[in-house]
Automatic annotation (TrEMBL):
Name assigned to this protein: MFS transporter
PROSITE patterns: MFS, SUGAR_TRANSPORT_1
Residue ranges of domain Major facilitator superfamily (MFS) profile in the record: 31-494
CDD domains, A to Z: MFS_MMR_MDR_like
Subcellular localization, as worded in the UniProt entry: Cell membrane
Species whose genome carries this gene: Streptomyces thermoviolaceus subsp. thermoviolaceus
Amino acid sequence: MTDSPTAAPIRTAPATDATGGAAPDPRRWWGLVIIALAQLMVVLDATIVNIALPSAQKALGMTDGNRQWVITAYTLAFGGLLLLGGRIADLVGRKRTFLIGLIGFAVASAIGGASQSPGMLFGARALQGVFGAVLAPSALSLMTTTFTDPRERGKAFGIYGAIAGAGGAIGLLLGGVLTSYANWRWCLYVNIPIAIVAVIGAAVLLRDRPGHSDVTLDVPGVILGCGGLVAVVYGFSEAEPRGWSDGLVLSLLAGGVVLLAAFVLWQTKATSPLLPLRILADRNRAGCFLTMGLATIGMFGLFLFMTYYLQDILGYSPVRSGLAFLPMSASIIIGSTQISARLLPRTSPRLLMVPGMLLAAAGLVVLTRLGVDSAYVTHVLPAEILLGLGMGLTFMPVFSTATHGIRPQDAGVASAMVNTSQQVGGSLGTALLNTIAASATTTYVGSHLTDPSRRTQVLRAGIVHGYTQAIWWGVAAMLIAAVVSAVLIVARPARGGAPMAASAH
């Protein structure tokens, strides 16, 4: 059974918790600021460069075929190495890997900002992904082992969930501002001051027990698991430009599935597995991982299509486009910190996650009514508010439940699985929805372009039609996530507030 933290006041002698019974750190809330800064930096980097990509492409002379590697190099390294990063955090200590991740991420960002060729930028982005894969799991596992008091845990994970959900939209705004008023290079340089502050703060404020000597690195597991994840993420990313029937795409996806199947088989035999299957055997954690992956598919659909809709169809500038996403960020923050964090101590996680996914699905349904002349206030804004509230309701209990009661020696890899679910869901969502949209647009234009003089109007209408058709698939992903949450999540609120699992590891 998972451990159930006590609800005793902080001033009394603490009960045994996930950190092994250490007293709560009096500086833990300042530590949360540092952890939040690091998480924001990682999440920002998934979207901030998107806005800067056209400028970077022109400055460095990238071809249209190669420009995707600015995004793909990061997602491949990040998504493929998360499990390894989580296990390293368990092996050598979370604070140490947190600091290594921060410093490495800052150095990679500096190299990327100073890039003089496409290859240099691609390499720097891959390096960012490598250190991001170390940083993200150690940040979340530090949260898990720092905040064990039920009510404090709710507040802390509310803030963390808000950042995880809103960071992508904030990245679009910040990318627009930096690209318009400074230079595309600052979309990478901006990580350096954030990392410096976080490194100093982490060194002073964060504390963690040494790494677990009983944890060893599972080398065959690293090769099979990370290789499989890289193949799957790469296959999804190549499906967008090449099509799902392309030989390379099919080979990557099939190879990835085979490697992951071999990985699971090996994990049943390894003495110190990279991913202990007891983590996946817990139905609450498995439900959280699935919910996160499915939710991210739909969420990335909104980011992807709304960025182009606002700029190419409504004619917004990059800065105005970024500002247009702020209501969604605000809704995520409200849903996570003001609703989820307050209700989770007294409510089963699924009673937040199921309505959250239904709200998010409703927001995407609003977007399926978009037309070429739709107004932001009547169509986009209501969708953002609904989706944001839904994600805020969902992300916080997902992070909290997926990492609650985990064994200290597994905290890093469990945290990595949450991030992996998010990353794989985002990669799949981007590739799947983009392919569906492109196909729907081609079909629409082919059947409606009867008068060559109306080509521009028909093409614009076809693009929007493609977006709306693809968004229906995002709706489906959200609804499936609601069902998964309802069926698999059986954790209930413990006395005092933290979710208490009803199944064993």
